[in-house]
Amino acid sequence: MELKQSLSTHVETEKPLRRYGAVEETAWTAEGLGRNQLDIISMAETTMMPEEIELEMAKIQRLREVLVRRESELRFM
């Protein structure tokens, strides 16, 4: 019981969080947007496992190495 009272007193005396008005004031309307912008669908994948990310990074690294090698070959031609 004392813990609850001390917590509630601490919360009441605590400085209020700073709020930024832009978050609350921003109102998104479809009036100013073109039809194409309303139909945008995000293709981002939010459920990647860390192992999948590592595999993708390895693929990117291999592609980078190939591109660097080809670029250097073209320079010396």
UniProtKB/TrEMBL annotation:
<dbReference type="InterPro" id="IPR040127">
    <property type="entry name" value="BMERB"/>
</dbReference>
<dbReference type="GO" id="GO:0015630">
    <property type="term" value="C:microtubule cytoskeleton"/>
</dbReference>
<protein>
    <recommendedName>
        <fullName>BMERB domain-containing protein</fullName>
    </recommendedName>
</protein>
<dbReference type="GO" id="GO:0007026">
    <property type="term" value="P:negative regulation of microtubule depolymerization"/>
</dbReference>
